[in-house]
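Quick check before the chapter quiz. The format below is the same one you will see on the exam, so make sure you can read both the input and the output lines.
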Amino acid sequence: MKKVALYIVFALTGLFFIGGMEVSGQTNTKKSVLWAPEDIKWESLKGAPPGVMTVNLWGDNTKGAYGGMTKFPEGFKAPMHYHTYATKIVVIKGAYTYNGKEYGPGSYVYVPGGVKHESAGVGNSETIFFIEQPGKFDIIPVGSMKKKK
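Here is the expected output.
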């Protein structure tokens, strides 16, 4: 089961990387980009609740369109919020919980910009998912007039 999930990660990463190159204007590159899991450098996701980690595969999630992976720690839950831009997600490990329903490895979740929702991982595992957005990442809590940066 773990090997299958790992193969899914590599296949999706490759497919989305190729698609993302065209979307973000990086079609001029003539170098292959190959990262083994141990070479991926996770860092805290700016503007997200504590414990949420990210890695950009292309683009820059603080400036504009991007594709990357996000990691929720075990038991993570974000309160009701929305994002400015549409979000495309493919679950790699654990489960992504959207408004109370869990979506496991291989699941696809699309959330249009401006749609209020709760998101979470699961209690018994970290959650890792591929994420792509046409603009920079933000998280806007419902009931707040301020945008988190």
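If your answer matched, good. The two ends are 37 Å apart (CA to CA).
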